[in-house]
Design brief:
DNA-binding, four-stranded antiparallel beta sheet, binds adenosine-3',5'-cyclic-monophosphate, Arc Repressor Mutant, subunit A, Jelly Rolls, WH-like_DNA-bd_sf, alpha+beta, 10 helices, 224 residues
Length: 224
């Protein structure tokens, strides 16, 4: 089970079955409780991680204490590789938003894999996708309003964590409203207002650390 999920990560997806199994055997499982911190922004980085279960938030803190979330990652996703590629401090703090298990790979076990062009290409593709996503988020910060950004964030979370139910897509994102606000780069009040407005229009139903999207199409139009 663990291996199947870990093999979705770009690092392992490019390996044949035997090599992937050997690599997983070299990775170290780390159990995380909800709210537990794995590493802190500024720490030296000596390992990368692939998520087996649970969700991880990657956040940065400004000098005045405000926080901004770069991403929420789930099973099969990888993080912590930047400070291995480009030796330097961690660019973000990693905290579990739900209990789960991640698998770590040390720099010494990681770097030799880059000699395999298929692995290197797969990692470059993943970095490229992340850069595209980050550029889009930056453009949205400049060009979109808060409700548009909230709609887009919910659709992104739905695509990765959503589950079809009888009345819509249940997105158990595990985030507080404060964290959702940090993800879209707005105040909690403004994000709450947008969510209440969407709920009032019947586009979604708010639940504890989750939403059920009832009208994906209307939300999609609002996200444009
Ligand atoms: P590292 O700097 O070692 O530790 C923090 C990690 O957050 C970083 O490696 C990346 O893996 C990840 N990260 C940084 N920026 C982003 C981003 N914009 N989107 C997703 N993940 C990111």
């Amino acid at each position: 089970m663990a291996e199947e999920v870990l093999r979705r990560a770009p690092l392992l997806a490019a390996l044949d079955e035997d090599s992937a199994r050997a690599l997983v055997a070299r990775m170290r499982p780390v159990e995380l409780a909800r709210g537990e911190r794995l590493f802190h922004e500024g720490d030296p980085g000596d390992a990368l991680y692939v998520i087996e279960t649970g969700k991880i938030k990657l956040g940065r803190r400004a000098a005045d204490g405000r926080e901004n979330l770069l991403a929420i990652l789930g099973p099969g996703e990888m993080f912590g590789e930047l400070s291995l590629f480009d030796p330097g401090p961690r660019v973000a703090t990693a905290v579990a938003v739900s209990a789960g298990r991640v698998h770590s790979l040390t720099r010494d076990d990681f770097v030799p894999l880059l000699d395999q062009p298929r692995v290197a290409l797969s990692l470059l593709a993943a970095l490229g996708r992340r850069l595209r996503r980050t550029n889009e988020a930056l453009a949205d910060l400049v060009f979109s309003d808060v409700p548009g950004r909230v709609a887009k964030a919910l659709l992104d979370l739905a695509r990765r964590f959503g589950r079809q139910t009888d009345d819509g897509v249940l997105v158990a994102h595990d985030l507080t409203q404060e964290e959702l606000a940090q993800l879209v780069g707005a105040s909690r009040e403004t994000v709450n207002k947008a969510l209440a407005d969407f709920a009032g229009r019947g586009w979604l139903r708010l639940e504890a650390r989750a939403v059920t999207i009832l009208d994906v199409e209307r939300l999609r139009r609002r996200a444009r």
